[in-house]
Amino acid sequence: MEPKELEVIEEIEKLEEKALISPNRQILNRFKKNKTAVFGLIIVVILIFVALFAPFIAPYKYDEVNYSESLKPPSSKHLLGTDILGRDIFSRIIYGSRVSLEVGIIAVAISVIIGVTLGLISGYFGGWVDALIMRLVDITYSFPFLLFAIAIMTILGPGMINVFIAIGIINWAWFARVTRGSVLSAKEQEYVLAAVAMGASPGRIMFKHIMPNVIAPVIVGAALNSGYAILAEAALSFLGIGVQPPYPSWGLMLSDARNYISTAPWMTIYPGLAIALTVLGFILLGNGLRDAIDPRLKI
Amino acid sequence: MEPILKVKNLKKYFPVKKKKLFERRKYLKAVDGVDLEVYPGETIGLVGESGCGKTTLGRTILKLYQPTEGSIIFDGKDIAKIRGKVLKDFRRQAQIIFQDPYASLNPRMKVKQIIEEPLIVHGYSRDEREKIVDEIMESVGLNPEHKFRYPHEFSGGQRQRISIGRTIALRPKLIVCDEPVSALDVSIQAQIINLLEELQDTYKLTYIFISHDLSVVRHISDRVAVMYLGRIVEIADKKEIYEKPHHPYTVALLSAIPIPDPEKERNRKRIILKGDLPSPINPPSGCRFHTRCYKAKERCAKEEPKLVEVSSGHSVACFYPENT
After folding, report:
1. CA dist., res. A40 & res. A37, Å (int)
2. pLDDT digits over A116-133, tens only?
């Protein structure tokens, strides 16, 4: 055989091998190549680490008051300075990461569970069920986010768990819409028809055959949404209807800091930076996941 | 012999999306009055060009689509309107093999899970399932050791074997084969066809074999039905229809089969039909084929020919049939 032909054959064999790598493996490979995505992942991993080991990392307790140290600028004793009550900003930011992480996970989990279930039902059954759920989505969408959140918080009362619930029941609409869209195309797939032909129940078809194949955009959306949920929590806490003092939420810290912005800027800068970095981390991670899972997804 | 399946005046219309608000709703008449009898153990080939309703007919028979009108009598019972438990019982006895072995297997399930699924749905115990899965994999020519692999690790032909395995797991009586080999290489096609024939012998299966490949249909079928625009225009024994086609459409289709002899190939007359398949939303009046027929006369545009038996077992819907 000509050497050129051999080359071509080798090339084909390589391609064939590539085709045999499992879809999950391919996603992982694509993700690893994307530097910004890995950067986002690192930020999120650091956040998780910090939140889990907060008591070991923080030099002070978050509610440790020390009036003699009030409004001190950053120093070796207080790495990021102190607030009006002499509490250590660094320690409070460390503890505050727990709130943010919990919001990022629990609030988004609530939206995903509600949204994906309703989206599956809506897309699979169609007809009036679909119309009803989609109008509910439209209604949820039509409220300004913060106003809606404030309304829910007023009804439920302030508190951490209620923040999760409020953000969760506002964000479900997005997941419902995205899931429904994917279900509409997935349910025409022949493997779904095959499941119908064997007599599988609608529940089995929805959760066993359709859901695993429409979950990709939901995962991407969940990562992106976590960023926005953290932002929303900060906003609610800033307005005083979210997490209650003395527990440190980054939004709450900003709210405390706003009277001292010219005299003690460290009180504003560092919690603000923490929020910005965390949100950035989640969004970079989400975008990276999207590009790795399916670059054609439009989210 | 009693037919295992008797389809009478079966219709399946799909609603078409309205373009204007105050427009009368239009329907796409995919299957428009089909009569068909299928006998146990036989293979009936269903041929016709793309868009003629073969696939819709196959899927409606299996109740994957709810029929608009007509009756489907399976094993003596009309299944057109059944649901719930009775329907599930029917599902166990009638199955389908799809065309595209890439689209018909759930990419997130292992081979074992795929073949086992119908058994789970119909309440087989774990031990029974284990045994049947191994048995089935062997009988469709797969190595049972590969049962923990995912579909993407297999070639097209092997995937179609997996798909066939899932189909026969419940030991159905009737299988609709919806172009099961069209997506495969020619060399693999033969293997799959042989497998289908073997399984038919072993499990006493009845096939409705949908295809646009006339050579494949000729090989596997006992009888052949030709469809045009939602109707059956001719049905006869294989030998009869390939040697003495009556309907001009059948004649045209058969003239398109390539002959592997250049001498003959050059000298034979090929009938080339004018135009495309008319829209099934607005089918032509009278005989649906008259717009493209080389024999059409005035009568064809006005009256509709019925499917009538012209000789034993050979029915045709045409006023001016060939070869009679």
Report:
1. 5
2. 999 999 999 988 999 999
